[in-house]
Amino acid sequence: MNTDMSIRKFSPLWNKYRPAILKMMLAAADQPQQYKLMQHEVVAMDSKKKSGWGFTLQVKGSKAINKIKDSEMAQDLLNMLQLSPKASELMNTHTYEIVFDKQFTLHVTQVKAPVAPVESEVSQETKPE
Questions:
Q1: What is the mean pLDDT of the chain?
Q2: How far apart are CA 114 and CA 14, in angstroms?
Q3: Residue 26's pLDDT band (cuts 50, 70, 90)
Q4: Range of the structural domain that residue 73 is part of
Q5: Of 18, 74, 107, 118, which is least packed with CB atoms within 10 Å of its CB?
Q6: Residue 2 belongs to some domain of the structure
Q7: Does 3 fall in a domain?
Q8: DSSP for 26-53?
Q9: Per the domain annotation, does 104 fall within a domain?
């Protein structure tokens, strides 16, 4: 674990993929998005790490709303997003769940607020003429 927080191990990786991540965040308004990262690029960021590449990052208002202190990778992703004006704007208006799975695929989902059920949408206005 880095003791100097100014040196972020995974920043080069997340900065490289920032345009793709921002596009995914925008497109996630319609449906969940996913993007496969190159395994060798990820592993090169921390060659000592043998497993545990996966993480889940839930963000709202530019802050993690789940515990990510055990994932340096998730912390560095959040840091990159906080430094991006566009990502900050998106995180301030929507809640996102970003999952990095063990197959090195990044999943971005915009978490929708629960919608209250609408009063009977079936209208009885279709009367025979």
A1: 87
A2: 31
A3: very high
A4: 11-111
A5: 118
A6: no
A7: no
A8: HHTTTS-EEEEPPHHHHHHH-TT--S--
A9: yes
